Sequence to fold (168 residues):
Amino acid sequence: MSWEDNCDSLCPIARALTEVGDRWTLLILRELSFGVHRFEEIQAQTEMSSHSLASRLKRMEEAEIVVRRLYSTRPDRYEYFATDKGKDLDAVLLALRAWNLKWDRRSDGEEFAVKLVHKKSGELIDGHWQNPPGESFSFDHTDARMSDSYRAEREGKRQKFSAGKRRR
Fold:
């Protein structure tokens, strides 16, 4: 079954994966949670081809995970934002982050790429943090601080992307 196929299974995981699809969808949502909303900025950070990114964004829009908003005309340019349905995937991103913090031995002793603190409780969100009962998780409920090294990594991607565009 390809990503574009509808899933007839009764399994909710299989059915959810027909909308979430692959790593690109989650990386796009990561960027949106960082406040990155424009196509080229998302492309620079995910390192996706323009065709792949356009396809994923279109599919995510059809699935009502993202919505696009016109920010410029001549030519038309859009920004992308997570819908409520898309923001509900914040908990999935948090779970993947926690899983990686627990099992990726490369991260032992490393500074967090993004230090997250739960706004209401003031608790550090690490690999063992639990969401308060009755509260759905959203990155809107956190204060985030990107580490200097991760900020530098992202700036390097942006510069590499910009340099590639100038060479064309």
